[in-house]
Amino acid sequence: MLRMPPDKDDEPPPDILPLTPEEALALFFGALGNDETKGLLLAVSGGPDSIAMLCLAAAVRAYLPPLAVATVDHRLRPEAAEEAKMVAGLCKELKIPHCTLPWADRPAAPFSQEAARKGRYALLLGHARAIEASHIVTAHTLDDQAETVLMRMASGTGLGGLGAMRPNVKRGHIGHLRPFLDVPKSRVLATCDLHGWHFAQDASNRDGRYKRVRLRALMPVLAQEGLTPERLGKLAARARRTEDAIEHVVERMLDACVIRHAPDGGTMRLKAEPFCTEPFEIAMRMLRRSMFAIASRENMDAQIPLAKLEMLMRNLRMAIRDQRPFRSTLAWAVVAHANALIEVRSAPPRRGSNKGNAVQSRGALAIAPDVSK
């Protein structure tokens, strides 16, 4: 049951003002943009953010695509099964389909939060495909975004990483929406408090072994110096805007460089000169795009280490400048230069018994003075 917000005379500060259903609907549509939708799969863990997202979505379901809910049970905490049952009960009350997704094939412990995140999204995406939902929806808030910016900065990220999470991204053929990304967590908690919505508290969110938790503890201190979640969120938005502008230029530059893209997609041949004459950042992004253009499906979501890509780009530019042959392997791609041409092709399978390939499997660059014709 939704309750009325307080009168304007008694209105709380904006950062603790409860969300209204009308605001939630605008946030959903803002995240969707022009996407065509067949259904939304809400990822609901039972915490305050996802419970608020579920109840607000239910209040405006007449204006949204068909809703379904999934709860991932990582089977890491004894409370997780009860939390999934709580969400299932709430969904039954709201008359929204619910499914609990156990992480049955998790790796042997210990494993990282990143491994758990990948396992969680694999389950959600698989279920979205099974029920023919076009999008999954998570309840990340502005506070999550600020923490992600700090984590990316601590890892030495580039501009793309500084943009942190996006409100709408593609994960294969499934969209991923984060409609609450600009909403402070305090407003989410105020919404739950106003309507009396019960939620679970995950003890791991207070576990100091995790970097995100340690950075979260620093947020009040950083806010006193002006580094508030709002400013970190604005920094991320500006970084994404700049990133998109650069990528627009890179796409046009790369299109002008392509001489041949093999029908099977596994090889590209390009003009070498722009990779030497264009600004380093532009040239490096052109190379990265070329590598993903020949990537297999399993590598499409992989990360290319920025430091190793920068090293490869420096070596390639020197080879182009000196007009000498060059070949280097990084991740799944072989990058070669000769006769004013660059070829980017799929690397051969690595054999553990081969010493040179073993080095490459650890990410080192292998350089040889030849190029395929």
Protein described:
The radius of gyration is 24 Å and the shape is elongated. The chain is of the alpha/beta class and 373 residues long. It has 13 helices and eleven strands. Strands 3-2-1-4-6-5 form a six-stranded mixed β-sheet, sandwiched between helices. α11 packs across α12. 46% of the residues lie in helices and 14% in strands. Mean pLDDT is 89; it is low at 353-373. It has helices spanning 21-32, 48-59, 79-94, 113-130, 142-154, 159-162, 185-195, 211-224, 229-257, 273-277, 280-293, 306-322, 355-361; strands spanning 40-43, 67-73, 98-102, 135-137, 168-171, 174-177, 258-261, 267-271, 326-330, 333-338, 341-346.
Strand proportion, as a percent range, falls in 5-15%
Question: Unreliable stretches, pLDDT < 50, 5 or more residues?
Answer: 353-373
Q: Please provide the ordered H/E string of secondary-structure elements.
A: HEHEHEHEHHEEHHHEEHHHEEEH
Structural class comes to: alpha/beta
Which sheet architecture does the biggest sheet show? 6 strands, mixed
User: What would you call the shape?
Assistant: elongated
Helical region count?
Answer: 13
Main-sheet strand order equals 3-2-1-4-6-5
The overall pLDDT average reads 89
Total strands: the figure is 11
Per-chain topology:
Elements (H helix, E strand, L loop, with lengths): L20 H12 L7 E4 L4 H12 L7 E7 L5 H16 L3 E5 L10 H18 L4 E3 L4 H13 L4 H4 L5 E4 L2 E4 L7 H11 L15 H14 L4 H29 E4 L5 E5 L1 H5 L2 H14 L12 H17 L3 E5 L2 E6 L2 E6 L8 H7 L12
